[in-house]
Amino acid sequence: QQQVKQSPQSLIVQKGGIPIINCAYENTAFDYFPWYQQFPGKGPALLIAIRPDVSEKKEGRFTISFNKSAKQFSLHIMDSQPGDSATYFCAASSFIIQGAQKLVFGQGTRLTINP
Amino acid sequence: DGGITQSPKYLFRKEGQNVTLSCEQNLNHDAMYWYRQDPGQGLRLIYYSQIVNDFQKGDIAEGYSVSREKKESFPLTVTSAQKNPTAFYLCASSSAYYNSPLHFGNGTRLTVT
């Protein structure tokens, strides 16, 4: 129940295309869903996040779509660029302990944007 | 610049030896975390700490130990009891506010042979 399942494992898209990465969860107590972006040899960095009271959130070229009834959420990258090539992780958390959060991460998607 | 420093970037050890990974932050964050990253498995939580002198086991704590004697520092020891220690280890920190983002270091790649 604590798992977050992410797909696909890898994705190759041409420049300008719209890669879509999907995640699904079981635990209805999750109430925060961030996406992290990781470049090779670096630590992940927060990209965008959503709470379940909204169905969509946009930040620049990145959009999260959230379907609470289906317990699924996805990341869309508009007008993708070679610089977006990275590994993307979805995650989910619920309030556990004051002062810390226990994020459950998906398995990751290695995205390649070809020029 | 504020951030998280992990050292060393690469670490090699012989099987049966304990090894300690360093993590220092100057973000004044209360919470600190250790994650393990393996290909195709995402990030898995090893230990976390909300406050100095207190820490909690994560999902895969067996074979690991931590300490939190200073707010800025959260070292991780990989003991000889960890069956598959070769991995990429990531340290992170966050403020005390709920859903505040995790700030990650650039990781330490540990190879045990």
Walk me through this protein's architecture.
The complex is a heterodimer of chains A (115) and B (113). Chain A is an all-beta fold and 115 residues long. In chain A, 0% of the residues lie in helices and 50% in strands. Chain A is built from no helices and 11 strands. In chain A, strands 2, 4, 5, 9, 10 and 11 form a 6-stranded mixed beta sheet that branches. A 5-stranded antiparallel beta sheet of chain A has the order 1-3-8-7-6, with no helix packed on it. The relative contact order of chain A is 0.33. The model of chain A has no long low-confidence stretch (mean pLDDT 93). Chain B is mainly beta and 113 residues long. In chain B, 0% of the residues lie in helices and 50% in strands. Chain B has strands at residues 4-7, 10-13, 19-25, 31-37, 43-51, 54-57, 64-66, 76-78, 87-94, 103-104, 108-112. Chain B is globular, with a radius of gyration of 13 Å. Classes of the chains: A mainly beta (115), B mainly beta (113). Chains A and B meet through β5 of A and β4, β5, β9 and β10 of B.
